[in-house]
Design brief:
This protein is α/β, with parallel strands linked by helices. The chain has two domains: about 170 residues, D-Maltodextrin-Binding Protein, domain 2 (3-Layer(aba) Sandwich), CATH 3.40.190.10; about 130 residues, D-Maltodextrin-Binding Protein, domain 2, CATH 3.40.190. It contains 16 helices and ten strands. The chain has a three-stranded antiparallel sheet with strand order 3-10-4, sandwiched between helices. Strands 8-5-9 form a three-stranded antiparallel sheet. It is globular, with a radius of gyration of 23 Å.
Length: about 325
């Protein structure tokens, strides 16, 4: 019996090496925002320990990463690409068989809207709607003018400053007593939510998901009563020269995992993982809140996620691969 063992071990080793060479070296874009960094680190760990890839992270950002994947075939994977930012180029890359849309990295899409604290809606259910908010405008204290109400918009220079200002006009919020407050920065905007929430005060403003803030503070997205008018949103709401804006909810922003065609072709099993790997905003909000509270980086947040949320990530993987990842933890 013993004389067979080296042959069995050698066969197993050859099988593992074949699997590894099939996947080979894989480069993953580690984008410069937290949710994308968490995803990149999760992908690296799963590819390395589940699929025997030689996975490495390289710095990335939306436009340069997408362009490089189309033109140079590198990196192999962009875990979280907000695809509207370069949709025409990506679609052309797919047509030319250079890249693939592997799946949705954020299942709900990127989410934008006007938000109020949940405790306000519990007290005044009608404040889940913009008409209810305007009815209770006096509750939203202006930081400088006691006779006016505060609507916190995007910091100056952000694209969402345009859409928020147009929707403010479309819903006649000035006539209801609201003034636009520029928070000055992302930190100023999130800080205004934290301050109001911890004091149990009213707050109204623009925000987006997934974010740590919406993981820490339970907020309700205000219903404009309009549904989503995509044509209006694209051609007027988001345009600085929009003369007569109409109400529309923000449409979800598509957020995809993009891979190169070469990676998908040489490592079909690993590629299959990306067609199934996706986060719900609420789950990512919770991870980002933990990340902020613990001043953690993407790698530390990855370990937290894999250890605390096995019911999520194990659904993405075949049972034997999931077991390999679990053993590696």
């Amino acid at each position: 019996m013993n004389y067979k063992m080296p042959l069995i071990l050698a066969a197993g080793l050859l099988s593992t090496q074949a699997h590894a060479s099939e996947c080979g070296t894989v480069t993953i874009a580690d984008m410069n925002w937290n949710s994308a960094s968490v995803m990149a680190n999760v992908d690296r760990f799963i590819l390395e320990h589940g699929y025997d890839c030689d996975a490495e992270l390289i710095p990335g950002d939306t436009m340069p990463t997408g362009t490089s994947m189309i033109e140079k075939g590198q990196p192999d994977i962009a875990p979280e690409l907000w695809s509207n930012a370069l949709k025409d180029a990506l679609d052309r890359g797919v047509e030319e068989k250079r890249i693939r849309y592997a799946g949705k990295s954020l299942i709900d899409g990127g989410e934008e809207g006007f938000w109020v604290p949940a405790y306000l809606v519990e007290k005044h259910p009608e404040m889940a709607t913009i008409e209810g908010v305007k009815k209770h405008a006096k509750l939203f204290e202006h930081p400088e003018d006691p006779d006016r109400s505060a609507f916190y918009s995007c910091p100056a220079g952000w694209n969402c400053q345009i859409s928020a200002a147009n929707l403010y006009r479309a819903m006649n919020m000035e006539d209801a007593g609201f003034d636009i407050i520029d928070p000055g920065s992302a930190a100023g905007l999130s800080g205004s939510i934290a301050k109001s929430y911890e004091r149990g005060e009213a707050w109204l403003g623009y925000y987006w998901a997934p974010t740590a803030v919406l993981g820490k503070y339970t907020m309700v997205k205000v219903d404009f009563g309009s549904g989503v008018d995509l044509d209006e949103f694209i051609n007027c709401t988001t345009q600085a020269e929009c003369d007569d804006p109409k109400p529309t909810m923000y449409p979800p922003s598509p957020v995809h995992t993009i891979t190169t065609e070469k990676f998908a072709a040489r490592a079909p099993e690993a590629y299959e993982y990306f067609t199934k790997r996706g986060f719900k905003n609420n789950d990512m909000n919770q991870v980002l809140a933990w990340m902020e509270d613990n001043q953690a980086n993407g790698e530390e947040a990855m370990y937290h996620f894999l250890e605390e949320y096995p019911q999520i990530w194990q659904e993405w993987l075949p049972q034997d691969i999931a077991q390999k990842v679990q053993d590696a933890l």
